[in-house]
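quick one, two chains, predict together pls
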Amino acid sequence: MQNEKRFNVKEFFMKLFKRQIFIPIAALLLLALFNLIVDPSFYRITLGYNSAGDPVLSGYLMTILDYGSELAILAIGMTLVTSASGGQDISVGAGIAIAGSVILRVLCGTNSRPETLQAPIIVAFLVSCVVAMLFGAFNGALVAYFKIQPMVATLILFTAGRSIAAWINNNELPIVSDPTFSYFGGFIPGIPIPTPFFIAVVCMIVIALVLKFTNLGLYTQAVGINESSSRLNGLNPAFIKFLSFVILGLCVAVAGLIKVSRLSSINYSVIAKDIEMDAILAVALGGNSLSGGKFNMTASILGAYVIQFLTTTLYKFNVQSDALPAYKAVVVIILVVLSTPVVRDYLSGLGKKLNLKRNVKEVG
Amino acid sequence: MSFMNRLRDKSKNMTDTNLLLLITIVVFFAMYIGAILFQGKGFLKPQTFFNILNANASLIILSCGMSLVMITGGIDISVGGVTALVSMCCAVYLDYHNGNVFVAVLIALAIGLAFGLVQGFLVAYLDIQPFIVTLAGMFFARGMTTIVNTNPFNVQNEAFVALKETRVIVPGFGSVNKLGKYVPAYIEIGVVVAILIVIVLFCVLRWTKLGRSFYAVGGNSQSALMLGINVKRTKFLSHLICGLLAGVGGFVYFMHVGSGSASHASGMEMNAIASSIIGGTMLTGGVGNIIGTFFGVLSLSTIQNIVSSAGLDQAWWTGITIAAMLCLFLVIQSIVMARKKRALRKN
């Protein structure tokens, strides 16, 4: 009787282990446990008041919720691009700089420090969406129609993007003084939870509805798994790749709004620096294959929050922000090595061998 | 008429490598002549050309390694990070520990070799995408550079400064300055190293069995495997050599700038990739030429010189021009590929 029960538990864990979402959840639990043991004060959340006198929640968990949200938005687009094209877009950081620069340009007009907004925020946001989608379309066209590897094609914007962003504003640093603009990256008065989280939730709902009611997910995966057979089935692989880059452009515009709103200004060389690494990492941590094919959106989004959890944990231990990439690179390499077929086969072989030995012992 | 026909025949029979090489060399000369015509006499002086070489010796070495990896069908974007790490480590060793220059060279080579070993192993034997591996390598190198030392500083070690100041005089290219004094043209030691590496690598790629196997693996790894080439080992070797060259290039860079800083060589990997692509190395692998890479670096740095001497000395113009040039050459490559495919279908 007891034996049977244990067997069930084992089967349950095996089933969980095989699910894709297991990887980010396991990583999250590991990090959470680590923080709980080292310093439980990590989880303290306090209700305070910000400079405007509005109630805000603060604490490390809130930081994760806040900064993880923009990453989650990027992870949505990056997952689609990864799945369709089998490569990643490394120009998202530069794209955020461009989108942010466009927003400020529209809001401030020619004067870099206006007293009042020159245009409604929604108009600025829509213009930046269009611009970011155009840049996404540029990447997408290079990848889909000129058949250039995604990472190399996006390398062009990766180099030129920040220069273009600076050029849009004549290398000035416009400052928006209107307080409503800072709501998007901060707090709406009266609501103590950071706004980026709500924006991320809206994006998640939209993408969930799109995946549920359209064939986007199916087509993307089909193109990623086998391009020529999907063409034989009547799909247009080039267009779907192109579309995935345009959707990523939209995500970049939303993330750009949050980023610019946090500062009410922009710093072209620093804004969203190294965020492409985090976005790719989120997709990888979600257990999605980086060479395209099947994807799991929930796992990617969860992966984004786990990455932010890791970053916040590292910051808490006084790791310099410039040194952060070194630690993250180690995490990426470990993750990628563990997910390669060679290592997986070896590990499962090892597991079988151990089982066999135990069985032999029991028999003997 | 027959001449035109012969020309058409020749262009039809031309291999991709030679066609792309030709485009590169023509572009370089056109650009240099354009610079002489529009930017005045500065570009006519031989020393201007040698200065371009002096400033870009490390880029030539890094691009050679990059081309090798790209010919094999991979990519290595960690070279800029490795350059920064090498110069920081050597600077700290020479200045804080008052070290020996010879040991510093060994440190540089060891760092490069270590990166090459690990990345090559992960790419070749564990079959991970080279871009992901080397992206992680780049971030690791950049992070480590800050961990080794945060503040930029100049190296005052005497032996090193003596080495840095060493000039190799090129006879016959000197010029007379305004005071009527003869100033000989010179190059730095790094340029000698770079040219040696270009020649050796060119010979290896052209005439040795190993060199040909790089092309075979990049062109079609399946058929290379059937020809009995050890594909994994070839890929591993390409990354190893690229890492080693990144170490050498890092030291040459360090010799040129003479300081350690975490922001050194930022965007260098990008320039190396751009030079290789402009030099006619195909991203898809199997096509490329080290001489082309050499001219690619020269084209790139000539553009940078033109931009800065035209008074557009704003960092963003350089970025935009390089990106535009890269975009142009990528599209040319894509057209060449399409042409090849069409020719195959016809046959």
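The radius of gyration of chain B is 21 Å.
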